[in-house]
Design a protein that fits this description.
This is diguanylate cyclase. This protein has about 300 residues and is an alpha+beta fold. About 45% of the residues lie in helices and about 25% in strands. The protein folds into two domains: about 10-135, Beta-Lactamase (2-Layer Sandwich); about 145-300, 2-Layer Sandwich (Alpha-Beta Plaits), CATH 3.30.70. Bound molecules: guanosine-5'-triphosphate. The site of guanosine-5'-triphosphate has 17 residues, from strand 6, helix 8 and helix 9.
């Protein structure tokens, strides 16, 4: 059959347009092939050159995909391989994400979506990879906001509960000590009522800074709400926690918070986690001791 020159021109034009379009995509259109013997390659790759380099690098990948896998973050590599294997076995779409690392240390988060088809010699996926670094960073920012107390910048109750869950599980598994302090400012209502809410806010912020400065990096100081704070101390037995609580109490009592008459004091309940107990049992015991400190006259640490 004779070829119609005009329709060939049209086809060439369409192909050129398609090529130009894929080259400017904010992602990659690809084919990935894996033989039954494990040989893998990218027969087709087009799009964002940030992800898989220039045409010379892509030429290499069309023969051997291992150069691409060298750039996958080591923490993400096993998950990616499991996802590929599952998709090959089940012929369900491949859907996962991973970090792509550049030699210069730059990292991109890539989302991959691809449909597999069985061939005689292996599996072929047709799919897309999209750079989702901005979304991942934005999600991390939102998570940070939802875990942070606005006024003091400290972790909030929600974040402390996550830490508690993790540290209790470590303590249960390894039998390592874990202590908890519950701190409450004494007569804070009086400070607010006498000097105003803004002055009260300043006291909360200053107290948070003061405590932060006296704690180790791995100790989690959180604001639970109002004038109540907590400190979670991994690898710390009650005796050390007691010394630290006394030090905080002392430093706060002698600190000049800028209030015209007198200082600020705190009451503290401390306790150590008992292997096997639940988070709420630990919290309740620390709370009971805090209220015992209040009952006994305030500006006090109670540990049993
Ligand atoms: N300035 C300020 N005040 C707050 C904030 N959150 C809670 N408060 C106030 O903290 C005060 C807490 O009062 P109470 O619960 O009666 O406790 P207290 O006066 O410290 O008395 P004791 O704990 O028994 O020593 C209340 O007046 C709340 O309005 C805040 O973010 N900023």
């Amino acid at each position: 059959m004779a070829l119609d020159d005009t329709s060939l021109d049209g086809t060439r034009h369409d192909l050129d347009q398609l090529k130009a379009m894929t080259e400017s995509l904010p992602g990659i259109v690809f084919q990935f092939y894996r033989s039954h013997h494990g040989k893998a390659c990218f027969p087709y790759l087009a799009g964002d050159s940030k992800i898989f380099g220039d045409s010379a690098q892509r030429e290499l990948l069309s023969e051997d995909a291992s150069h691409a896998f060298d750039h996958v973050h080591p923490d993400d590599f096993p998950r990616l391989m499991v996802a590929v294997e599952r998709s090959a076995q089940s012929l369900m779409p491949l859907a996962t994400q991973f970090r792509h690392c550049e030699q210069e240390g730059e990292e991109y988060w890539i989302a991959v979506r691809a449909k597999p088809e069985r061939l005689n010699s292996g599996t072929l996926w047709n799919g897309l990879m999209v750079n989702i670094t901005e979304q991942i960073e934005y999600q991390a920012h939102l998570r940070e906001l939802s875990d942070t107390d606005d006024l003091t910048g400290l972790p909030n109750r929600r974040k402390l509960m996550c830490h508690l869950k993790r540290e209790i599980s470590v303590s249960n598994r390894h039998g390592t000590p874990l202590s908890l302090m519950m701190i409450d400012i004494d007569h804070f209502k009086h400070i607010n009522d006498t000097w105003g809410h803004l002055q009260g806010d300043k006291v909360l912020r200053r107290l948070a800074e003061l405590c932060r400065g006296l704690l180790r990096e791995e100790d989690c100081l959180a604001r639970l709400g109002g004038e109540e704070f907590a400190v979670l101390l991994p690898l710390t037995p009650l005796s050390h926690c007691q010394k630290l609580a006394e030090r905080l109490r002392h430093e706060i009592a002698r600190h000049d918070f800028g209030l015209p008459n007198g200082g600020v004091t705190i009451s503290t309940g401390i306790t150590e986690h008992r292997v096997g107990e639940l988070r709420d049992q630990l919290l309740e015991r620390a709370d009971r001791r805090l209220y015992s400190a209040k009952r006994q006259g305030r500006n006090l640490v109670v540990g049993n």
